[in-house]
Structure formats: C-alpha cells, structure tokens
Amino acid sequence: MQPPATALLIYPVTLVVGSLFSVLSPTAQGSRDHALYGTAGGPLTPATPVNYFARKDNVFNLYFVKVGWLWTTLAFAVVLLSLDAYRTPSSQRLRRMGQATARYALATLVWYLTTQWCFGPAIIDRSFVVTGGRCEHMVPSVGGSGSNHDDDDPFGFHSLFTAAACKSAGGAWRGGHDVSGHVFMLVLTTSMLGFETVGALGAGDEESGRRKWSVRFVSVVAALSWWMLLMTAIWFHTWFEKFNGLLIALGTVYTIYILPRRVIPWRNVVGIPGL
User: Fold this and answer.
1) Helices 239-253 & 93-115, crossing angle to 10 degrees?
2) Cβ distance 133 to 157 under 8 Å?
3) Torsion angle of alpha carbons 225, 198, 109, 164, nearest 10°?
4) Looking at the DSSP assignment, which residues form a beta bridge with residue 135?
5) What is the dihedral of CA 53, 57, 59, 64, to 10 degrees?
6) In angstroms, rounded to a whole number, what is the distance separating the alpha carbons of residues 59 and 121?
7) Ordered strands of the 134-140 beta sheet
8) Which comes out higher in pLDDT, residue 85 or 138?
9) Active site residues
10) Which candidate, 52, 82, 151, 268, has a CA 20 to 30 Å from the CA of 59?
11) What is the rounded (10 degree) CA torsion for 43, 45, 46, 47?
C-alpha cells in the first residue's frame, strides 16, 4: 500500500493557491510587502497591520520550521520504532529497517547540502550569490521604519557568503535569486512522512494504543508542515523562488520513493516503505 505519485500534486496546488491569494487579496498584498521590505534592519511598523504568519518571528516559524528537520527526524523515528512493520520479529524486519534508514539518510543528505553546507556555503546560498546576491549593511532610514544599504561596505559585509552569517552580522541578504528553503524542506518533510507512514501501516500494522498515538504525532507534524507551506506561499518569496524549492524537493521525493517502484536495482538499495 503506497500513495500514488499523483498525490504529490497537492504541493503545486498549495503553492498556486497561496500565491494567488497573496496577489488577489489587498490585505495579503499589503502585509506581504511589509513583511518582505519593511522589516529589514528594523522592527515592524506599529501602524501597519501585518498577519501573524507574515512575521518571520512567529512562534511556528521559530520553533517548528527553523528546526524542521529535528521534527522530521523525531516523526520518522516514531514510525520506525513504534509501528509493527519495523517492530514485529520477521525475516523482513532487518531489511526493512536498513532500507528505511537508507531513505532517511539520503533525504537528510539532500536537505543538508541544499540548506546547510555543501563543501562551503549551501546550494541555496551558492545559487543566491551566483545570481548576483550579496550581504548588504543595513542602516536605518530617515523615517526610522525602513532601511537602506551602505554601498561602501566598510565592515566587509559583501564578503559574507551565507544567509546565516549575513544575518548574524546584522546585514541583509539582497539582490539574488533566493530559492525557498522553506518550500523545499516542508514539501520534503510532509511527503517523506506520508510515504513512510502509509507504507508501514499497509504492511499489516494492528490497531493499538501505540499505533494510534504514533500516527497522531506524525500527522500533527505533517499537517503543521503543510500549513506552514501554505503560509510561505502567501507571505514570502517570488513565484520562481517557490517553484525552484518545490522542484528540488519533488526531485528528491521521486528519487527516493517513486523511482524504486520501477527500477529494481535501486529498490534493492532503498526499498519501498512497508515492503
């Protein structure tokens, strides 16, 4: 029992709906512009109404999305340690656990190279710099609510090549193509947990309190990830930046979960959840 490949259509549909809402809703458009441009280097302007989810400091972004792979890992571990497909002693148990671990390791590697480190700056940071982006020194504007950049760069901000280092130094990441890391990670998280959970349950898991609470926890992580994907689609990034984040995620999901259904040698390495 596996989700059909067409189930992945939920992600482009989510991004299209969110992006259209951000363009067509006057309230969303104003809040989105303020979230993107009005807060760089300074606090939110009190007089400007901003949706809570348009703020980068909202609690869900800080404690869920920013540490999203930790929640993904916990949910994956719950599936692996609590569902019968991986717990019940059988001739298939060790093979299933080994292949599940390989799938998780491969997804983690792609996440790490894309968003954290790739022999230096992560792939997202490298693409931003290659397309003309750089770290700029942000200074308060005359009105106190906006910001301008210091082209003289006396503090060496232009030499910072990662978004994290730029932010830590008090600069702003501007000018390049900023592939949406949020879209990439949230799509990868929800699809990964969906394939793993449905596959494990389809392997004949019996109804139990352990199974019920395990599935509930994984479902909450997946549902909140989808919700934050929708919020990202509404409030942040351009259409093209969101599309590229989606493309990287779907390419990863296809390689790990769809391709093994057709390519036997690859299936022998990463397996199929529940089989």
Assistant:
1) 160
2) no
3) 0
4) 173
5) 90
6) 27
7) 147-149, 134-140, 171-174
8) 85
9) 182, 237
10) 82
11) 180
Calculate the CA 137 to chain-centre distance.
Answer: 27
Q: How far is CA 273 from the centre of its chain?
A: 22
Q: For residue 104, what are the contacts with CB-CB under 8 A and spacing of at least 6?
A: 73, 76
Token duo for residue 86: 């991986």
Mean pLDDT of 166-185: 80
Of all residues in the chain, the percent with pLDDT exceeding 70 is 78
Angle between helices 123-130 and 93-115 (to 10 degrees): 30
pLDDT at 52: 84
Give the residue-averaged pLDDT of 80-97: 86
Task: Supply the DSSP string of 187-254, one letter for each residue.
Answer: HHHHHHHHHHHHHHHTTTPPP-HHHHHHHHHHHHHHHHHHHHHHHHHHHSS-HHHHHHHHHHHHHHHI
Distance CA 63, CA 57 (A): 9
List helix spans (H) across the chain.
Answer: 10-24, 26-33, 59-60, 68-82, 84-87, 93-115, 123-130, 163-168, 181-201, 209-235, 239-253, 264-270
d(CA 236, CA 164): 18
Q: Report pLDDT digits (tens) over 139-163.
A: 544 444 444 444 444 444 445 567 7
The whole-angstrom separation of Cα 163 and Cα 174 is 10
Reported as a single tens digit per residue, the pLDDT across 11-52 is 999 999 999 988 887 766 655 555 444 433 444 444 444 688
